[in-house]
Structure formats: structure tokens, C-alpha cells
Amino acid sequence: MAAGRKGFLGFIGFWAFIAGLVIAVVAGILSPQNTAVIVVLIILGLVIGFLNITAKEFMLFLLATIALIVVGSVFAPLTVLGLGKVLDRILSYVATLMAPAAIVAAIKALWAVAKPGD
Hints:
The protein has one domain (8-114). It is 73% helix and 0% strand. It has helices at residues 8-30, 35-51, 58-71, 83-114. The radius of gyration is 16 Å and the shape is globular.
């Protein structure tokens, strides 16, 4: 993510991504369907979308996000120790983190395509 971006904003975007992943995993294990966690993940996702996604990363990022969202409840059949439910919650929270970033990236891509010139 944004390997070419330097400076303070790139630093913030990177740590927003790391913090979002950690929150998603911890909340997925400990806190199912927590509204406060969802709001924090959405805000972090917007930060990631605005600060981390460069023009070179649009396609790969959007493809990865679509794949993440499409898999949905793939772990539900795994019933040993309730592991399937926990993994589904983690995946759901990660998708919640990445969906706002994907929306921002998609709008940036549409803007770049629609912009006259070049």
C-alpha cells in the first residue's frame, strides 16, 4: 500500500491500515457486531482510501477488496470450537474496514478516467 508515498500522510495512512487490521481481528474474536467498532473501522477505511491508495494500486486494490467482500460467510460451516463464527466475524470486520477505502479508490479511478486531457 502506497509504497511510493512519503511523508507524514503516508505514515498516517499506513498506521491506519495496521490499526484497522488489529481492531478487526481483536473485535472479531471478542466483540460481535459492535457499532462503535464498525464506525471506527469505517473512519479508518476512509483514511486508508484517501491517504494510501495511489493510481498504480487502484486495480489491484479494488480487485482484492471485491474478492474479500465476495467470500462472505465462507467459514460458517467450520463448527469446531465455534471457529467458523469467529473467522466470519473477523472477515466481516476486515471487509468493513476495506469497503470505504474501496469506494474512495473507485471514485478516484472514475475521476481520473473522466477528467479531460492526457
